[in-house]
């Protein structure tokens, strides 16, 4: 092969490598590779570094368990065992711990790279940041609890009002003038309106 052809091939390989390197480093997700024999981190992308607050020198060579929040270590151990047994992990919710100590809620997906003897050489891990989603879920649960409390309070009050209105309407010894009847009717209508709102709250919750 002529020198010019070799140089052209090298240039093409370099261009392809740089393209995929750029995709890897700037992926929206945090990417990580681990040696399964010693649990040590072999590689990670820039997205992981930026979100976690470490340098690559501080991460490469550390145990994979180093990056997780203590709150989820048992789940991490379970996920790691699953990986060793099956060669993959599918969409497991875990919590990373940044250098500053804050939490990043993630969805972990792992696949394995194997040699010709079907032995796992290393893992490719993808961490998707779902922290904002978890915050939304927390707010939604808080809304559900609030709506439930309000619904119960209103329902109890409505029952009392409805019983009182029914008794007033049925009482033969009470004689209401037109103005009093209007007030009783207004209370009854207000009760129906509140009941409608309570039902709406329950459906949204």
TrEMBL record:
SMART domains: PAC, PAS. Its EC number is 2.7.13.3. Residues 16-87 form the PAS domain. It catalyses: ATP + protein L-histidine = ADP + protein N-phospho-L-histidine. InterPro entries: PAC (IPR001610), PAS (IPR000014), PAS-assoc_C (IPR000700), PAS-like_dom_sf (IPR035965), Sensor_kinase/Photoreceptor (IPR052162). It is an enzyme of class 2 (transferase). It comes from the Bacteria. This is histidine kinase. It comes from Seonamhaeicola algicola.
